[in-house]
Specification:
elongated; 19% strand; alpha+beta; five-stranded mixed barrel
């Protein structure tokens, strides 16, 4: 079979462009030639379409006295090749590629395989790089250190432990769906990171199962999740005739049940979004019934008052309900029962009444005007206090001074008795880098550096640059040209040449070692066969 037919066969088998195979062959011949002639030789290789062969040329300089026949030639020799040659010219001499030995051929074969594999990996990456933000389906291939490896067909993806739902278990060959949070390229192929814990996964499941969301009639405004336990989804309808909650739940709960089953039983509350923050918060705290809402616009917080029998529902187990409501609405929420509010109001009244110049009646008036603490009283103007309580100016000034003194005393001893839940305190980012992941990456980099440090002349800084560039094996390294390595590592060209020479030598010694082991095995097999015949 001629070379053109081989190129066509490999191209079809691997589904790769013909130019990729030709480039791999050229690189392989060039590396093989450099092993014979040394890195100082000026070599050039090209595929000849007419002869269907790889042409290799060695360029030699025309000199008066030849010191190195691989680098120089005489004027007489040059003029035999090109009659117009002159001193100092560089003449290309065609070389016979069949002269390379078995070791060089093995190295060439490895480079061809490296190049072909790189091209295959790049093609797969190009296919998946734009699929970030989609849901992919596959089968569980294996489970490694709690990470689920998913078979997507041509490539594997991973669901890290931190991106899985609490308590869910999968077995090999189970079908699994997950959301693509990252796609990156590496020498080992595309790295596809999936998640079942991010809010976007839940949003996409709603989009898949609720026609009105897919058609953009109903919109998901916000999502809050405690993955594997409970979630709240706020929805809004652009069409007044369409009930957004009913559309998401479906007939007899059919639509929402599909999503719940996919998430392993995670409870989902679908909440109607409202332009009025107070109404929205009341709905978000469902199933609790809210009695009263006190809005503090300045601090972007709300005080939620509920009946005593609704308090546990409003807060939820371990504060889950109010925490998710805070995440969903973006407001800081403070839950109080009506009884505790009454006690708190009595406490406010008693503290204000204890300020010299104020009585219970005055304290009640101040509380009705939303002035509940000595600190708040100390900050109002004398004129405002005179108008509120109908006081003399002198008395009003004295009360404000007494309030300042009382506020200072209380600041030394006051503790917060209510339970507050803020968006900042309860939100969790799915993109947080887990310490275990950092440790794993550091371990892999250390292993790569240790491999490169085996190369003669390679130091810590160079090994670090190679590892950071994504090189994982010596084979990956020699499969790239000098210029490609310089571009990826930003190392000087002189350093890169030293690395390549050392890498070639390492691979040659490795190949010789393998051949020696193979010959020893053949010799031992021959002895065993002889023993069997003798018997």
């Amino acid at each position: 079979m001629n070379l053109s037919a081989v190129i066509a066969a490999v191209s079809q088998d691997k589904n790769l462009d013909r130019s990729v195979i030709i480039d791999a062959l050229e690189q392989a011949i060039l590396h093989a030639a450099q092993k014979d002639f040394g890195p100082e030789s000026e070599l050039e290789v090209a595929y000849n379409e007419s002869t269907e062969e790889i042409d290799l040329f060695q360029f030699r300089t025309v000199v008066e006295e030849v010191e190195d026949k691989d680098l120089h030639l005489t004027l007489e020799e040059a003029q035999k090749l090109d009659p117009g040659s002159e001193m100092g010219d560089s003449i290309g001499v065609r070389l016979d590629t069949s002269r390379f030995g078995r070791i060089a051929a093995q190295a060439a074969k490895q480079i061809i395989m490296q190049k072909v594999n790189q091209a295959e990996r790049h093609k797969i990456y190009e296919r998946f790089k734009d699929r970030k933000g989609e849901i992919l389906s596959g089968y569980v291939r294996r489970i490694e250190r709690r990470n689920i490896i998913v078979d997507l067909g041509q490539v594997e993806a991973v669901i890290p432990a931190r991106e899985q739902l609490f308590g869910e278990r999968f077995r090999v060959k189970d079908r699994i769906q997950a959301y693509v949070i990252d796609v990156s390229s590496s020498l080992k192929g595309p790295q596809i990171i999936l998640s079942r814990a991010v809010n976007e996964f839940l949003e996409k499941l709603f989009e898949q199962n609720v026609t009105e969301i897919y058609d953009q009639i109903v919109e998901i405004i916000s999502v809050a999740r405690d993955p594997g336990h409970r979630a709240k989804v706020a929805v809004y309808s652009r069409d007044s005739s369409v009930d957004p909650v009913g559309a998401c739940v479906g007939m007899k709960g059919a639509r929402i049940q599909i999503i719940v089953n996919e998430l392993g039983g995670e409870k989902i509350d679908v909440v109607p979004w409202d332009n009025d923050p107070a109404v929205f918060v009341c709905d978000a705290l469902s199933p609790a019934v809210v009695s009263k809402v006190i809005v503090d616009e300045d601090n972007h917080s709300m005080e939620i008052i509920v009946a005593e029998d609704q308090l546990s529902l409003a807060i939820g187990r371990r504060g889950q309900n109010v925490r998710l409501a805070a995440q969903l609405t973006g407001w800081k929420l403070d839950i109080k029962s009506e009884v505790s509010l009454e006690k708190q109001m009595e406490s406010f009244k008693a503290i204000l009444s204890s300020i010299e110049g104020l009585g219970e009646m005055h304290a009640g008036i101040l509380i009705n005007e939303d002035i509940k603490t000595p600190q708040e009283l100390s900050q109002i103007s004398t004129r405002a206090l005179i108008r509120l309580l109908n006081l003399d100016e002198e008395v009003a000034e004295a009360i404000i001074e007494a309030a300042k003194t009382k506020a200072h005393e209380l600041s030394q001893t006051t503790t917060t008795e209510t339970q507050e839940f803020s968006v900042q305190d309860t939100s969790a980012s799915p993109d947080m880098v887990v310490d275990n992941e950092k440790e794993l990456q550091a371990k892999r980099k250390k292993e790569r550096m240790e491999l490169f440090l085996k190369l003669k002349g390679v130091g810590e800084a160079t090994a670090d640059a190679l590892a950071n560039a994504g090189y994982a094996t010596i084979g990956d390294l020699i499969a790239d040209s000098n210029d490609e390595i310089v571009m990826k590592t930003e190392l000087p060209i002189a350093v890169v040449k030293t690395v390549i020479i050392a890498a070639d030598k390492y691979m040659l010694e490795h190949a010789l070692s393998l051949n020696k082991d193979s010959e020893n095995d053949d010799h031992e097999d021959g002895q065993e066969d002889g023993d069997n015949v003798h018997d």
